[in-house]
Design goal:
This is Cornifelin. By secondary structure, the chain is mainly alpha-helical. The protein has five helices and no strands.
Length: 115
């Protein structure tokens, strides 16, 4: 018996890919496009981290752990087919953490149809 020839490798998207646009739905500084996320991020960023992790299907404590938001952002990018690198994720979380967290929360709300 001969083995079948594989002519095409399986594609990416094994993470439950939704819409693969290659870009975030909103920009890093579009905080006012979702006032609930903006207010929660401004007044209580820990609560926003817990809310975002919970809405993404992770343990709500992930948003409070060192490196947790970077890990969640990297997984989110892979799941949604958004371009980027782990290094860029870490740098954005470190230097623009609050804006980056707000963007992740907006992305989840947009993709879940809540906005």
């Amino acid at each position: 018996m001969s083995n079948p020839v594989v002519s095409q490798q399986p594609g990416a998207g094994g993470y439950g890919t939704n819409v693969q646009t290659g870009e975030w739905s909103t920009g890093l500084c579009d905080c006012c496009s979702d006032l609930l996320v903006c207010a929660l991020g401004f007044f209580c960023p820990l609560a926003l981290g817990c809310y975002t992790a919970d809405k993404y299907g992770e343990n709500c404590c992930l948003g409070c752990l060192p490196g947790g938001l970077t890990a969640m952002k990297t997984h989110m990018r892979l799941t949604y087919g958004i371009q980027g690198t782990v290094c860029n994720d870490a740098l954005m979380s470190c230097f623009c953490g609050l804006c980056d967290l707000c963007r992740m929360a907006r992305e989840i709300r947009i993709r879940n149809g809540e906005v």
